[in-house]
Specification:
The protein has about 250 residues and is an alpha/beta fold. It contains six helices and seven strands; from the N terminus they run E-H-E-E-H-E-H-E-H-E-H-H-E. It has one domain: NAD(P)-binding Rossmann-like Domain (Rossmann fold), CATH 3.40.50.720. It comes from Kineococcus aurantiacus.
Amino acid sequence: MDPDDEPDHDPRDGPDDRDGARGGRGRAVVVGASSAIGAAVAHRLHRGGWSVEAWGRDPASWTRSLPPCVRRRVDVTRREDVEEALERGRGPLTTLVYAAGLFDWADTDRADPGTWDELFEVNLTAAARVARLAAPALLRAAPSSLVLLGSTAAHRAFAHNAAYVASKHGLLGLADAVRADLSAAGVAVSIVNPGMVAAGASLLSDRGREDPQSLLRADDVAEAVHYAAAAPPHVCVSRLDLLPRSG
């Protein structure tokens, strides 16, 4: 795992708060922060007053703009990476956002089995692993929140991406079951389900190529995550679905 690294300040975040003024809401870990959506979530939580810790497994992606924060190279498919990163964290873990994910455009009879194995590992198995290993820290810091980034595929089926649909259905079940276990102790568990976003695999769809402006933005998803994470202690945003207005 790489040492902590401080990125350059981004003007979207306002004044650079390296003097410790931030962090009033505690520490927020954003898993998958090297993606467009993950980076947008990191920015939004930073602006909302969290001390952000960004996790990602692709060193080349760390050139993406992030707010001032601790960055850790973490492969969430490796239990030891997750355990070490959680142990090294500083301050109460009040929010954890799981935004890591893979996508595959392929019919079932033509899909690569290895790609499906990796997709399930990142989208569901690793999400469960991170939730399990972070649960004690979230309980200690309660009231706290766990936000999982799902998809409209969590409750609908689409052609050409059976593995993705199945993984997101599983993630919805994970969110509901973890909420049942932890909510009474003060941990709010939310799942945010966006439709097509103008980032990543959605840009390869017919609509993404023909009319990307009609899709959701990464910042839209980040606002929804912030809404869930910033809810009052007596409120749990259990499920939040986002769709482009045009359907």
